[in-house]
Amino acid sequence: MSTNECREFLRKVKNADQDIRSMAISDLLSHLNTPTASLSKEDGEHYTGALIELLLDAQSYVQNLATECLGQIFKLIDKNTTLTTVTNICSRVAQRTSADGASALSVALRVMVSRVAESTEDKNFVTKLAHPIVSALSKSKELPADVNIDLFAALSEVVENVGSLLAVDGGPADAIQELLLDYSTHPNPNLVRRAFAVLGKFVVHVTGERSENALNTIFQRYQDSTKESDTAVLLGVLVAIARQRPACIKPVVSSIIDSELKTVNDCDTDLRVASLLAFETIVRHCSELASDRSSEIYAAAIKAAKYDPSYNYEDGDEDEMVSGSDGDDLEEEFGDEFDEDIYDDHDDTAWNIRTGGVRLLGTLAKSDLLSPVDAVAKIGSALIGGFKERVDIVRIEVLTTYTAILDTVKAQLGPEPEVTLTMKVENAAADAVVQQAPQAVSALLSSMKQYPKSTETKQLAFAVLSRIVSIRHSALDSLLTGVQPVVSSALAANDSAGALQMAATSIVRTNLKLDVLEFLRAFVTRNSMSDAADEFLFAVKDGIKSNVSSQTAQVPATTFSVAGDMLALLRLAADTGSQDASRYISWTQDMVALAISMASTNDLQLRVSVYDFIGTVLCQFGDLVDATIVDQGLSILTTWKNGTANVLALIHALAAALSASTHLRRERIVTAVPMILEQIDPVLRQNEVKVYTSALGIVKSLSSYGDLATPEANERIMLGVIGIIEKSPGSPPVVALQALASVSTQVSEEFIKQIASKLIRLLSVASVHDKPGSGALEQVYEAIGKSFPSIVEQWGSEILSSWKQSYEVFDKQRSAKNNDAILAQFPTSALANAAKSLLALFVGHYKAVGQAWTDAFLSDLLYVEPKSTTEVALTCLALRVLGYAAASGLLAQDPKVSTQLYSYIESSNDDVRNEAAFALGSYVGYCSGLLSTLFDNATTSTGVGATSKMLAIKAALDLAIATKRSVSTAEAMWTQITTYVQASEKPVSDVIAQILAIFVITFPDVYIPQLASCIASSSSTPAKISFITAFRTVLADKHFNSQCDAQVKLVLPTVLASISDADINVRRLTLLALYTLIQAKLELVEDVIPSIQPALFQQTVIDERVVREISMGPFKRKIDDGLEMRKVAYMCVQLLIRHMLSVVDGVALVDCVVRGIPDDPEVRVIVQHMVMETASAFPNNYVARLDDIGKAIKEVRDVKVHKSAVKQEVDKKEDSIKAAVSIAAKLQPLAKQAQLDSGLFATMIADMNNPSNENLYQYYKACTESPSASK
C-alpha cells in the first residue's frame, strides 16, 4: 500500500461513522492477506499505532477487526516495529485502571504474540517479547482475570517456542520465574492455575538450574497444599511436565505415587481425576518407578472405573445373552442412529472419574507392568463389566480401551506361535482372549440391546468382534447364533441408519455398515471353516448381497471385496472336503450379475472392486457357475480401455482369475488366450511402466498354459518383452526377466536363433548390471539352457566376454597414474551377476541333457597362476561360480576341490585370493565339518593367504550360521574362536571381530551375554580389544534389531566397565561404543549413564603415563598417546549434553571444561561447543570456577609460537586463542550477574577489552557484538 493509502486509512479510522471505520480496517485486512502485500517502515509504524488505538474503539466489531490485522501485519513490518507494538500494547494494558478497553488490548496481544512466536525464524527476537509481557503482568494484578489470562497465554507462547534461549546472556528467565512465583499466591484461583501452567512449561523448555528450582517449587507447593482444588491444579502441572520431560520428573515420582495412593479413593472431585491422570502418565513414561506399587494403582483404577454413586449396575441383566432375540426385534434397534439424550449426563462429575479409571486401565494393559495374559484376564474382564456403562462417553472409552488391548495381543502374535517361548506367551494371551470371548460377546450384545440408539456403541462392538476373530479365527464359532441376528439386522438397515454425527475414535469407520463388513472380512480371513461358521455365512449372505445396491459411499465396494474373500474361504472349505460350496452357487451368480451391471460405473473405487470380485469368482468358482457367467466375466476383464487406472485394475483382476490356483476350466482358458494376447501385445509397447509391468504378470501366468497359445502368439509376446528390456538394458524390470524366462520356453529354437544376437547382447548387459538378489536373470539363463542346449556355448561365451570387458576397464582405471586410480572400484555386482548367470545357464543345460551337474565347464577358465588381465578375470569368474555352486550344494565334498581352492588362496594376485576366499568359504560353510580345520589352518598360516583364509572363515560362517542357522556349528565354532582369542598374546586379525559379530547378530539371546562375559573376563589386552571391537561391529550391523536391543541393554554395565580399563586402547574402543550408543540407541544407555558418568569424566584427564617424548634431531617433542581417547571422551560428554542434559553432573562437567581449555586444539573446539550449550544450564557451577577458567584461558593465550613456525602452526595458534576468547565471552555475563569484578577471570576480560591488545580485543568484540560469532 502506498503512503497516500496509509494517510487515507488514518483519516477514515478517525471518522465518527463506525461503518467507515469498519470498511477501512476490512480493506487493510484484505491487503494484508494478499501474497504481494508490502509496507514501508514508516507506514508500518503508522498502521500499528492506529490499530492499537482502534482496540479501544467503542464498537466490538471494530476491535475484532483491529485484532486480526495486528495478527497479520507483523509479517510486513520489521522486528523493531513489532517489538514496539507489543511493548505499547503491554503498556496500555498496565495503565488501565479498569476493565474498560483492557480486554481488547490483551486479546490482541495474545493473538499477535502467538503468531509471531510460531512463525518467526529468529528465535532470539522472540525472547525479547517476554520483557514487556512480564512488565505488564507485574503491574496488572488488579485488572479482571480474563485480561491477565490473555497475558499469561502470550507469555506461555514465548516460553514454549524459545524457552531454551530465555536464560542465555541475561535473558528474562529469572524475571519470568519470579513473576510466576509471585502470581502463585494470587487470591484468584484462575490466575494461580494459569501461573502454574506457564511455570510447568518453564520447567519443560528452560533447562538447567532454573528449571530444577521451578520444579522443586511446584512439587513443594503440591506437597504442602491443603486444598483439594489447589492440589489438583499442581498435580496437573506435574503431569504435563512428565509427559514432555519424563526424565526430570523421575526424582519425585515415588513421592507422588505415595501421596496420591493415600487419597485417590477418598474423594470425588477434580483431584481424583488429576490423580488418575498422574498415574496414567507415570505408568506410560516411568513404568519402572511404579512397578512396586502397580497392584495398588490397578486397584485404584478398578475402583474409579466402577465409581457411579447414582446408579447400580447389578440391578440389570448384565450377563443376559440375547441369542434368543429374533431379527425383527434387533432390526428395530438399528432403525435410528442417534439418541437425543446420549450426552445428558455431563453434569454428573462421576463420569469423568470413571473415564480416568478406564484410561488408566488401558495404560496399565499396554505397559510392561502386566503380562499380556494378565492384561486380558484382569483388565479385560474389568472392562467387559463396563460395556453397559450408562454414560455414552464413558462407554465409548471402555470399548475403545478393550479394543486397544486386543490390538496389542494381535500385534504380538507371529505366524508360527509355537516356535519360541516368547511366542508361546503371546499365544497364551490369545488363549485368554478366546476364553473371555463368551463373556465379551454377551456383554456386547446386551449393551447394543440396552442402548439401541448409540451408533458408536454398535460400531465399537463390531470392532471388538473383528479383533477377536483376527486373534483366533474360530473364537466366535460357538457364539454365532447370538451374533448372526445383529449382523443381519445391521446389514438390512436403511442406508440412513448408522451415519455418525461425530466419530470419537479412529477405530471405527464412517458408517456402521462398513464396520459390520470389516467384521465379516476378518471373520472369513481364515484357513478352515466349521459347520457353525458355514451356517453363519449362509444366513448373512443375502444381507451382504443387499448392500451391493447401497447408496452410501464405500459400502458397495467394500461389500464386493468382502464377498470375494468369502468365496475364497468357501472354495478352500470345499476343496478340503469340510463343506459343500454348491449351495452358494445361486447367490454367487446373483452377485456376479450385479457386478457385471456395475462394471461401467463412474465410481473408480467401486469399479475396481467389481473387477476384483469378478476375477475372484472366475478363480474360485469358475468351474461351478454357468458358462455364460464365465464368458461375460472374461469379456469384461479382457477389454482394456478407459485409462491407465482402469486398465491396471482389469489386469490385476485377470491375473487373479488366471493364477496357478484358478478353477477356470482349461478349455475355457484356451479359448480366452487369443483375446488376452490381443490385449497384451499393444500394452507391452506402451511407455506406461505400471501398465506394461502388470501385463508382464499376465504373461507369467499364461506361461503355465504355454501350449495353449500358438507359437506365433508366443513369439509376438516375447518380442514385446524384449522391447521392454531394451528400454532399460542396464536395469531391466525384474518382472520382465521373469516373463522372458516363462515365455522363452514356449517358442521354437529357430525363432531363438533368429533373435539370439539381440537377446544375448541384452542379457549380457543385464547380467553385468542387474540388481543382486532378484534371481530373475538366473531364471532366464536356466530356462534358455534347459530349452535350447545347442546354443549354451554361444551364450556362455557372451557372458565371459561382457565380464572380461568390465574387469579390463576396472584394471585399467586402477593402474592409472592420475585420480582415476583413486576412484577405481572392483566391479563386484558385475562379477556376481555374471557368475550367477553362467551357473544358471549350465544348470539348465545339464537338466536338459539329463546329466548331473559338474564343474567341468570351468576348467578352461581356471589358471593356476594367472598372468594377464584376461586370465585373472576368467579365474575370478570361475572361482565365484564355484562359490555359488558350493553354497547351493552343487559342489560335492571332494578332497581335490579343497586342495584346488587352497592353492588359489595362496595366489600372488589379490583379486584371485579374494575370490578363492569366497569359494573356499562357501564350500566349507556347506560342508561345515571342515570349518574347524580351516580355522586352525587360517590361524597358523603366515603366508600371503593368511588374511584370505580368515575371510574364507567369515564367508563359511555367514553361510553355516547366518544363513543356515546351524546351532551346533555355532556352539562348536564359538568355543574354538573365543579360546583362540583368549589365548592370543598378540593382536589378532580384524576379521575375527567381524566373525564374532555373525554369531551375536544371528543368536543375540545366546551370544551377546557370552560376548560381554568375554570382555569382562579377558586378562589379555589383545583379546579384550578383539571382543570390544566385535561388540562395536554388532552395534553397527544393519541386522541389529529389537531382540539385540534387549540383550545389549542388559549387558551394558558389564561392557562399559571397560571405560576404566588399564589399557588406553581398550578405554578408547569402549568409549567409541558408548558414543555409538548415545548417538543411535539412547534408550539403551540412558539408565546406565549415571553410574558410568564419573568414569567417563575421568577419561578427560590427561594421563601422563601415556605421554612420551621423542627426539627429532636437536629438538624434542611430546607425543600424547591418550589424545585420541580423550577426544572420544569429550565427544561422549558433548552428546550427553545434547541428549541427556538433565542427568549431567554440573560440577564434573565444569571440571572437564577447565581441563579441556588448555588441551589439544581439537579438544578445545569440543569444549567451546560444550560451554556454548551449557552456560545457561549450570550458571552456578561455572561461576564457582571462573578463576580456574581464566587461568586456563591465560595458559592458551601465553603459548608462544616458535619464530620459524610455518603458517599452519601460526593459524592453529590463532584458532586456539579465538576459541578461548569465545569461551570467555560466553561466560562474561555470568560473571557480571554474580558481580565478580575481580580475580583472574575478570583480569582476562579486562585484557580482552583493552584495545592495545589488538588481536584479543578484536576477537572479543566480534564475540560480544554478534552472539552467533561465539557459537
Automatic annotation (TrEMBL):
Gene Ontology biological process terms, A to Z: SCF complex assembly
Domain (TATA-binding protein interacting (TIP20)): residue spans on this chain: 1084-1235
Record-given protein name: TATA-binding protein interacting (TIP20) domain-containing protein
Key words, A-Z: Repeat, Ubl conjugation pathway
Organism: Coemansia aciculifera
Cited InterPro entries: ARM-like (IPR011989), ARM-type_fold (IPR016024), CAND1/CAND2 (IPR039852), TATA-bd_TIP120 (IPR013932)
Sequence similarity: Belongs to the CAND family.
Pfam families according to UniProt: TIP120
PANTHER family per UniProt: TIP120
